[in-house]
Amino acid sequence: MKERTNEQWLMELRGANPDEALEDLYDLLVRGLRAALDTYGGGVEANVEDFAQEALIRITGNLDSFRGESRFTTWAQKIATNVALTELKRRRWRDVSLQDLFARREAADRGPADTQLTPEQLAFQNMVLGQLRRIVEEELTDRQREAVVAVILEGMPISEVARRMGTNQNALYKLLHDARRRLKRRMAAAGHSPKEVLAAFDEG
Amino acid sequence: MLKRGDVVKLVRVVAETREIEIGCDECFEQLGGFAELELSGAEASSMMPLVGDHLDRCEDCRNEFEALLTALRST
Description:
Chain A is 71% helix and 0% strand.
């Protein structure tokens, strides 16, 4: 494949004869995706070409947004992996609604306290748990609580939770950041250091 | 709503929270540059600390970064 500078890529893709550049870019994206998605197992190979095609559309439609903060091919590869990962996440979580997640959570037994604890340790754990519950209840909006549970506690991808909550990933990240900061301030005010709490729950 | 088993996870995540964090869009915008630094052997996290920070705490973005690194290494 012909070596191109960023400027050459842009010029050819914007020019009257973009076909050779498009083909070279497509091949590059397919190779990159094959390697990147290697761990995702079977069925993905069939989609690598579709992902590369979709990426090409996004790339050629957004050439003006390339700001030269990296090589053009890096920027293009980034778009391709984003197209692929977004779709793969969507498939993996397709059948899980937030309601399912919360219901599963309610039903799951998170386990009683460790029976090896002394009464003092158990009392401390219960007090901390009570404080945290109160802080979460008082400090956070309903939406923040929902997001904290789904993303932080249940591990659903932030992009998937965002879609279900009718927002976008970036906005949800900021919502969560605000929630985390509030919790941090209140927890500090409650007087127990994270180290102390983690040690009490045997994870110091 | 909060269960005993949630405490460790929540306290850890909250303890690592900083006043200033960039969001996913800003991280994504800079991911190409960050990945290239990483591949060149430079300490990408020292040179672009806010990006490194975000990747430490955001699994979605970390997966994007790792996929991009793998793609770049193979091409």
